[in-house]
Amino acid sequence: MSLRAKLVAGAQGLRELYVLPRTLWVAFAIYVPLGFINVSSIKLYLPLLRSLVLCDVPVSDEVYSGSLHCGDRNLVISISLQQEAWLVALKLFCRMISGPFLGALCDYHGRKPVLMLSISGITAASWLMMLACRQTLIPPIWTLSFALALQGCTTAFNLCFKSMVADLLDPQHRAKGFVVLNHTDVFSRGITLCFVIWIQKVQFMRFDLLCMLAGLLGLLILLFCHLCLEETLVKKAEPEALAALPGLRHLLSELRAPYQLLWSSAFLQIRLAQMLLNQLGNGWESIQDSFMISILGWGPGDWDLFNVPISSFREIWGMVTSGFMVQWAQQPGNSYWFMQANLLFGSAMLIIQNFGPFGAIFLLVPRCFLALCPGDGGADAAFFSSQFPREAQASANGLLIAVDNIVSGVSRWLYARFLFDPAARGCLAMMPLSARTIFTLLSNALCWYAWWRYGHPNKSRKED
Questions:
Q1: Which stretch of DSSP H or E encloses residue 54?
Q2: Is Transport a UniProt keyword of this protein (predicted)?
Q3: What is the mean pLDDT of residues 2-9?
Q4: Each residue of 360-382: pLDDT tens digit?
Q5: How many CB atoms lie within 10 A of CB 438?
Q6: Do residues 345 and 283 lie in contact, with contact meaning Cβ atoms separated by under 8 Å?
Q7: Which residues contact 28 (CB under 8 A, 6 or more apart)?
Q8: Looking at the DSSP assignment, which residues form a beta bridge with residue 54?
Q9: Range of the domain at 390
Q10: Same domain (yes/no): 223, 122
Q11: Cα–Cα distance, 48 to 96 (Å, whole number)
Q12: Cβ atoms 49, 84 nearer than 8 A
């Protein structure tokens, strides 16, 4: 096929990519402002906490401390960082506990009720944050802790939207639904990051107004969801034995469903182990900026100055090539061999990055090469979704959320406490990179095995 024919096919594929059921477009329309509230609240935790710190040092116009009530910048930074660590850990813990249960409720009672519960949770959290900024009778950190716990216990956006894609599209067409969901996420995050950067650049300090606006927007999203979004899950008749159970026992039976699924699915066990190892490797990102400053002598923010353009190019390139990749990856053989090649290339780039202490080029050049690789066209998400029936999609994703949240916190602590030494040089400074390489290579090996065991095209033909 000539280059021109490939470009025409890619453009045609990109147009066909967005041919989706109306209900999915309504869901994606909800996703954009909902993602805006969610991501902006996460990005603005620290500035909000800084604005509430109290001390005896008066605020000065000459030195920006970030607080409305304290002029000691070092004290403000120290206290706000400790409070942020507590709040993030609390929210992750609540998400870890609630993820599987919300997934089970989503599979039994439908996507729309659980999504509305999630919207209600983040809306109520926004109003509580506004209350924390407006009054001092109750210590603000208490109010914020309750707000973040409430948000963590009710957040189930991703598993609801992914389950909707699985409900409305056949397995062979789900890849494009997951790709468009990713495009929506990139668009929402892009708008949010621009807003967050602007808020911090103008040194806007009235976070009570921002929280109030977020609460009002949440109410509008909740109303739109109630009026315009249709339920996507076609419920099956319950077994007579389950329907005959009393209310409490019936509920407990529903909540046990994710763990029964985990016990019965070897694929899900492999996937959870793969995510655990991958998240242990991703803990490197929490100390990446500190590594560049202490080991390589870069200035604060220099890493983002180089990394953000690379990451942005990768996102844009993935969106541009997604139309062609979705069509190409619909063939089981294509998606299988692409994932194998992608794992091999990613592993090679990972090994090269181990030499980062000897020069930033060892970190940046592999990232540039990885950015040139097209996305998988939703193949991995569709592969995972294809292993479960529609009524078990949310339960499976809920377990992934639980593992993701607990291991994210543990991996950050592991790298900061044991693996990273700002005073190390040479080979000793390679320790966090070597740990990341070991964890990620083990994760890649499990991913390779899962694709070989459950997604190999020859096995699929034999089963057919």
A1: none
A2: yes
A3: 59
A4: 999 999 999 999 988 777 888 88
A5: 13
A6: no
A7: 161, 180, 181, 184
A8: 69
A9: 256-458
A10: yes
A11: 25
A12: yes
- The residue with tokens 């609801």 is 160
- CA pair distance 107, 162, nearest whole angstrom: 12
Q: Over the stretch 216-267, which tens digit does the pLDDT of each residue have?
A: 999 999 999 999 999 998 765 555 544 444 555 656 666 787 888 889 999 9
Taking CA atoms, 268 is separated from 276, 279, 292, in Å, by 12, 16, 37
Same domain flag for 264 and 303: yes
User: Which tens digits make up the pLDDT trace of 273-328?
Assistant: 999 999 999 988 888 877 888 888 887 667 777 887 888 888 888 887 877 777 77
**145 vs 94: CA distance, rounded Å:** 11
User: Encoding tokens for residue 147?
Assistant: 């707000």
CA proximity to 292, closest of 414, 432, 175, 197: 432
pLDDT of residue 12: 64
Domain boundary residue, one of 192, 213, 228: 228
What CATH number does the domain containing 365 carry?
Answer: 1.20.1250.20
How open is the CA angle 192-196-197, to the nearest 5 degrees? 120
How many folded domains does the chain comprise? Answer: 2
HSE at residue 106, side-chain half, CA atoms within 13 A, is 37
| Same domain membership, residue 278 and residue 220 | no
Residue 390 maps to a domain = yes
Distance of CA 177 to the CA centre of its chain: 17
| Residue 448 belongs to a domain | yes
Give the span between the Cα atoms of 332 and 267, in whole angstroms: 18
Shared-domain flag, residues 68 and 126: yes
